[in-house]
Automatic annotation (TrEMBL):
Protein name in UniProt: ACP phosphodiesterase
Keyword check for Transmembrane: no
Organism, as annotated: Aeromonas bestiarum
Keyword Heme among UniProt keywords: no
Biological processes annotated in GO: fatty acid biosynthetic process
Keywords: Fatty acid biosynthesis, Fatty acid metabolism, Hydrolase, Lipid biosynthesis, Lipid metabolism
Molecular function terms, GO-annotated: [acyl-carrier-protein] phosphodiesterase activity
Amino acid sequence: MNYLAHLHLAAHTRSSLTGNLLGDFVKGPLPSTLGPAFDEGIWLHRRIDAFTDAHPEHRAAVACFEAPWRRFGGILVDMLYDHWLSLHWPQFGEDPLPRFLQQSYGQLLADHQRLPDGLPVALTRMAEQNWIASYRHREGLGRALNGIGHRLRRPILLGDALATLDDASWHNGEQGFLRFYPQLMRFSEQQLAHYRETGGHAGLRP
């Protein structure tokens, strides 16, 4: 999953927003040296990504992309899921999306001072420049994907992949997301409840 989904699931489970985003940047075994709250978020991030990547709806969405785009299917679908989450936000979020993003960015930037090395540069820029708001629109989604593609070892205009989806594939992917996301919310609740019940010793190697 991508930034918006991880932020929403962190808020939904009352876990560290920053920790949940650090899961893309902190590698290796837990516990880390960052502290229990951040470790909990990193752990949940890893569980969420493993569940998502193995889910039939996610795999079906990836399969909609043909070569050469399918090799980037995981990235593409994760970004599409943020797009669809933005569009259907009232169904899942408690606060309006702009307010949620403003509060989330504020927490991320506040935690910057608490981390030994600060926030990763990408997270700081995301918070300062409000990247996530652009995901709601296809044009913004395409620009965000091109930004990701530019940072790959072999740069590619990753946003061009969106034009290869026909209307049926787009609709099916969106409906698949709407079936999948409530399952992911329940999974996140259950996993974190178990983690907390065991004092943070539940599967520290996801």
